[in-house]
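Example 3.2
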Amino acid sequence: MATDMREMKLEIFRAKDAKPLHETGNMSLPEFSPVQTEGFAGLYGEGMVPGDEVRVLFSVPGFSLTHVWFKKDFPLPRHSHDCDCLYYIVAGSLKLGNEELGPRDGFFLGANVPYTYTPGPEGVELLEFRHATEFDFKLLATSESFWQRAVATAKANQDEWRVAKMPALNT
């Protein structure tokens, strides 16, 4: 693989070869507080794992592309990253603040801007473009009430998440 984007002429990537984000080393995690640690433990215990699929499609020095599928109501904690990111919605929908976004919509977040969003009734399939290969994940969800709601959401949705199909692209 080229070590400098200027050296690259053509490189093909295939979705079937994409590795889960947690296996790539692209994202570093901070030390979590006791509340966050207990919250994540509760989420995993109540079936959070089938609620999302995050895979790195392409990664070269200075650039990465990640495919994300969050199933309906997936409780994405408020967080930030230390690099700019452009998000493009392929299918499904999400709510970001007061904005409803759907297929072919997107949003840009500058480095260290806190955010969260809620996947819509079909979930959301999106692409994350970063001008970085490595980035951090600063977890900002610190209240016990958030984690209690997130655990309840995972528990209520775990059976449906296991059999959910990726949202259809409405053209």
